[in-house]
Amino acid sequence: MSTRVLIVEDNESLALGLARSLEAAGFLADVIGDGAGAIAAVQARPPDLIVLDLTLPGRSGFEVLGELRAAGHRTPVLILSARGQEAEKVQGFRLGADDYVVKPVGILELIARVEAILRRSQPESTGAAASIAANDLVAAVGFGDVVVDPSRHVVEKAGQPVDLSPLEYELLVCLLRRDGAVVDRETLLTEVWGYKVAVPTRTVDTHIGNLRGKLEDEPSSPRHIITVRKVGYRLDR
Description:
Blueprint: E1 4-8, H1 12-24, E2 28-32, H2 35-44, E3 49-52, H3 61-70, E4 77-81, H4 86-95, E5 99-102, H5 107-121, H6 128-135, E6 141-143, E7 146-149, E8 154-157, E9 160-161, H7 166-176, E10 183-184, H8 185-193, H9 203-215, E11 225-228, E12 232-235
Parallel strand pairs: 1-2, 1-3, 3-4, 4-5
Antiparallel strand pairs: 6-7, 7-8, 8-9, 10-12, 11-12
């Protein structure tokens, strides 16, 4: 059965161009031009993935994403928007987006991102980092006042649970298993996001920022999740 992608985009020519490109790559593509219609379409027949614009008539893309997640819909969402401010990317990820791509974008890169999201969402494959958590991190490990317990798939800070998204958790595990060694962005994209080809993206940096905001005492001056300039990141215990 072919994979169904719902494109939520009010620019008709752009939406149809995306649909044709995705169909040429072997996907089935439906197009909706407004937020309310997108919510109704997902409720009636959830697609395998949603490509979501932010500037929509009626409800914004952020509102659509928030309503879907609040209603329990876990369909993977790739935000595709001309709005590229860091704050907007962070908001998208916090609402539950799986990736955020700024227009304009090459169709090959977009398809690579779609394929990576779909690989991560397959129930029989929870992703490389999840496998790492199960195989390598058996006992609880920690840094500072943070404890990661892979047996329960939970993270606590100062004894209180921390709500991490699945990608944030996998990213944290990927850093932890390196035991202080530097991990470059390309490796993180491969192991956590499942990309098979190199694509330009700030996704890793945005998720690192989210982790620092939740786990560091002073996110602007992190003590544990450290940037190694021009290379990647390491986790100091």
